[in-house]
């Protein structure tokens, strides 16, 4: 079981972000988006979050390389 987990789900016109510590959900936020996103828009939204998180972790581990 992971010590910490962040989970993002984007479905249609809704986005859900969940934070879990030691298997226990500690925070969950749900947003109703202004309109229903297409499948491509959903994928692009999640990709932006993934890329930003990747950049943050890469910088934290490797510094300014």
Topology:
Elements: E1 4-11, E2 14-21, E3 24-32, H1 39-62
Main traits of this protein?
65 residues; alpha+beta; three-stranded antiparallel sheet; 1 helix; flat
Would you give an account of this structure?
The protein has 1 helix and 3 strands. With about 60 residues, the protein is of the alpha+beta class. It has one domain. The protein has a 3-stranded antiparallel β-sheet. The longest helix has 24 residues, at about 40-60. The termini are far apart. The mean pLDDT is about 95.
Number of domains: 1
- Output the structural class: alpha+beta
Number of DSSP E strands: 3
Residue windows where pLDDT falls under 50 for at least 5 positions: none
* Arithmetic mean pLDDT: 94
How would you describe the shape?
Answer: flat
Counting H and I runs of at least 4 residues, what is the number of helices?
1
Q: What's the helical proportion of residues?
A: 25-40%
Instruction: Write out the strand line-up for the largest beta sheet, numbering strands in chain order.
Output: 1-2-3
In short:
The chain has about 60 residues and is an alpha+beta fold. The chain has one domain. Helices cover about 35% and strands about 40% of the residues.
């Amino acid at each position: 079981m992971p010590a910490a987990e962040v989970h993002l789900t984007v479905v249609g016109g809704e986005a859900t972000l969940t934070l879990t510590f030691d298997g226990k959900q500690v925070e969950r936020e749900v947003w109703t988006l202004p309109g229903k996103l297409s499948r491509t828009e959903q994928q692009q939204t999640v990709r932006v979050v993934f890329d930003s998180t990747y950049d943050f972790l890469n910088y934290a581990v490797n510094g300014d390389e």
